[in-house]
Amino acid sequence: MSWTPEIALIAALVIPLIGGVFVGLLGKSPNLREAATLTAAVLLACNVAYLVSVTGERPELVYAIGETGLTFGFQLEPLGALFAAVASGLWIVNSLYSIGYMRGNGEKHQTRFFVFFTIAIACAMGVALASNLLTMFLFYEALTLSTYPLVAHKGDDKARRGAAIYLAILLGTSIGLLLPAIIATQFIAGSTDFTVGGLLASEASPLVASILLILFAFGIGKAALMPVHPWLPNAMVAPTPVSALLHAVAVVKAGVFAILKVATYIFGPELIQEAPASTWLAWIAAISIVLASIIAMSSNNLKRRLAFSTVSQLSYVTLGAMIAAPLALLGAALQIVMHAWGKITLFMCAGAIYTATKKTEISDMRGLGRLMPWTFGAFAVGAFSIIGLPPFGGMWPKLYLMWGAATAGQQALIAALILSSILNVGYLLPIPARGFFDPAPKEGLKKPGPVLAILPPVITAAGITVLFFLIGPLTDFLAPVFGAEL
Q1: In terms of pTM, does the model score above 0.90?
Q2: Which burial class, exposed, middle or buried, applies to 310 when counting CB atoms under 10 A from its CB (0-12, 13-18, 19+)?
Q3: Which parts of 358-446 fold into alpha helices (H)?
Q4: Which pLDDT value is given to residue 246?
């Protein structure tokens, strides 16, 4: 039997789930358990690479749900292929890192951790490849439920409280806001299918579109638009590999991916620009960008600082979606890729520092760069990318978002992006600068971090640089989705 795009669509979900079964069965043998995790990650990445190569064929598998008029199915298109490629590629690196971190810190329940990791990746694939809102919603909810045990992994009171907030906000927004928006879309358009040009483009008035935009923007809580963002910093009670998963591979990227896909295929750029709510939602995103950066600057705990940085950086995608100019939408799509690589680097560095020193407060990390040069060097590269400096990938999303805002006559929004970059400098660069230029701690390091906690962020830091030079193929792949002329 030949491998076909349709088989590959199903395999994208099945491979991580089968991997999870083997992880569970091999739990008493850590080496075999982790080999199963890595094997599943590599197989999934190869399968997704094949899907990316056949994206132009738009393969799909759609099943009718009885005689309800509803469908459940999968379809490959460029945005979904992009998200699937990011998630599957970074799963390999994050799995290597997880092995080093979990062993280095003697974490309990490691088998359970790796099993739920595989389930979360399968759910992320379902979100990426969904052919309609109903399918995306089901996998979106499954992703929330599968990551809850990861957030609560430590099992203490702080972990349970943080996980409860995580679950309450994400389920509350999706059931209370997102689900009504999907039901309304089905009622208005008679379908929830993702449609080129926008399913609602000729079906909804600007007023109705505004109401639905509000429901989608805040109902997709994983995008962490203020004020539905508190779940994200509260989820920092999880082990650092989970933080890296949440912020780079699965949860938050599922959120902003959903925002961008809804904007592109449910509303369409023209309807969004006609909807009055899009303007003030763009300003809410701009305020979130700046305010979250200010909170990040005032946070001494490294993971909390990075969490609020993520709240800020996610709002770039919402901003681009609400501007809805072709170049702004392209910038939003690029942000999904570049932020994933930059932020996973920063979180893995934070975990490597903790594993080697047990330090979590930034004020206690002065001079550590002299003892951990690879870790702090990778952190510096990740920081440069988040700031938007060349030659690192994070420069391109900001450039295209500003370009798109200018073409849409929204020059005032450019100020938020510029101010964000200035604040990024203020809360990110002092960490490696003080790490390298302050005197090394007299006590030194009791033990160097595990190689598998140090090597992965170095790999992703190198990837950030490579992505800077791959902007041509990336824009060629994505530009036709938005009708962007480069």
Answers
A1: yes
A2: buried
A3: 373-387, 395-407, 411-428, 430-437
A4: 67
